[in-house]
From TrEMBL:
It comes from Pedobacter miscanthi. PANTHER family: PROPHAGE BACTOPRENOL-LINKED GLUCOSE TRANSLOCASE HOMOLOG. The lineage of its organism: Bacteria, Pseudomonadati, Bacteroidota, Sphingobacteriia, Sphingobacteriales. Coiled coil: none annotated. The keyword Transmembrane applies. Belongs to the GtrA family. Residues 12-122 form the GtrA/DPMS transmembrane domain. GO terms for cellular component: plasma membrane. This is GtrA family protein. It is a multi-pass membrane protein. It is found in: Membrane. It comes from the Bacteria.
């Protein structure tokens, strides 16, 4: 249970990074909302990996390269799911890109990320 709670805290840190960078890239730098979302998702992914490796799953494995490789595979799936969700919700349902990103990210986080990280990346 403690690992799950730590994972949720890690997700909040990663999400704050993701959303902050997405909003700054779109609103301050004028990037297309989808490009901003991709940059935010990648930035949040880096934060998520580092925090999960050290704090959540307390990985002591020397096999960092293998974990990074598996994480990239999982995060590529996350990136594809979130980006598709943002595009569909924004383009076809006319939702604000931030709301679309929140919905896509939350659904992906509770249905995909934790399970894949626990079972595939940071295995004991």
């Amino acid at each position: 249970m403690l690992t799950y709670l730590k994972a949720q805290a890690s997700s909040l840190m990663a999400s704050a990074t993701d959303f902050g960078i997405t909003i700054i890239a779109a609103n301050l730098f004028g990037l297309w909302y989808l490009a901003a979302s991709i940059i935010g998702t990648i930035s949040g992914g880096v934060v998520n990996f580092l925090v999960n490796r050290k704090w959540v799953f307390q990985s002591r494995s020397k096999e960092v390269k293998g974990q990074v490789f598996r994480y990239i595979i999982v995060w590529a799936g996350n990136l594809a799911i979130v980006t598709a969700g943002v595009f569909i919700l924004t383009h076809f349902f006319n939702l604000n890109y931030v709301l679309a990103k929140v919905l896509s990210s939350v659904l992906t986080g509770i249905s995909y990320n934790y399970i894949m990280q626990r079972q595939f990346i940071f295995t004991s």
